[in-house]
Amino acid sequence: VGMPTIYPKSNAGKYFVEFASSSTVHGLNHLVAPNRHPIEIFLAVLFIFGALLCLIFLSFLFWDRYQNNATVIVVYNDQDQFQILKPSIFICPVPNINLNKISDVFKKYNIEHTSEAEQFFTFLGSITYEDMAETPIFDKVPASKWLEILYDLKKDISPNILKENDPYEAWVVTERGLCFVTRNSFAVYATLSYWKNDNWTILPVPNNPPHYNYSVDGAQESLTVEHTALMLQRAIMSISAIETKPDVIQLSIQQRKCKFFNDGGLETWPVYTRNMCIMECRMKVIQDNCNCRPHFARTIEGINTCDANQLRCIGGIAKKLFLYEYPPSFCNCVPKCNVVSYQIRDKEKSELSDIPISSSVITLIVELPQIIYYRALLYGFNDFLSM
Fold this sequence. Notes:
By secondary structure, the chain is an alpha+beta fold. Helix content is 28%, strand content 18%.
């Protein structure tokens, strides 16, 4: 600025000279100064383009940091502020068939009470992916009715098993059959009634779910289920937790590398959990290989429910269903942003050598975490703009 300039003849040249001489970009004014040696002009152009390339490189570097390294995991050890959720409890009787109900249920669905039918539904009541290859051939009942029949045949479990008056107790449909669940606000999305009514409503998450009290020295839980037991069990449950700071919500899913339940993105579930995502991905693999969906999966228009032969097909591809390994990358099942993990290890089992008792009792000794990991914002959009 203030340096003499050349005098171009064209309007475009005059505009460039005006811009270069008054620009705050360092070095441009040397391009329009009079009496410059060609080498000086060449060096000025070289340095200007070099600076421009460095600026572009740094911009991409900062953008990549904002997109892929925007969060950091920090350790928090103020136990007075901890709120560790109590675990959900799933009770899955095996086999889950009440033999006393068979006659009445078969009459309800107009099924001829034969040993073949009884054997088939008893097998179906405790079926797993590993034994689907051994499914008995039975075609007297449409596969679309199997789940309703199994629901009516299930064993009875008394409500309020935890003596907490839990409003979320429910029978849910799982890949291991029908299970009774408590302390799970997401259980409703896997209930038979929710599916039959074609319900996609998202229910509010409770504001104050059951959690452990750190002011009590040690924690212990006992669970009693009324059915014949062969042993009493005491186990140790250790807990770890990762939570997410509120300011991370503003980031995209790719940036935070996790999902909140209301991020959705699944075809057969109205909310997101990693387990729901893995199950949905597994169902897609089954659809691609066996052209059906199992009776324990939510129905999709245009896709048939697997019959006995197709269940055998599923048993033949069990190794492709990532049952005991991490799901493949094409599933795109990212973790939940707020995760509490519960690890249970056996401590003591007492076998009942005499007559089995009428109730199963499990006592959990709870090891509460001493620290919690937080996913916090490290590099936000304002940080990117300030660079």
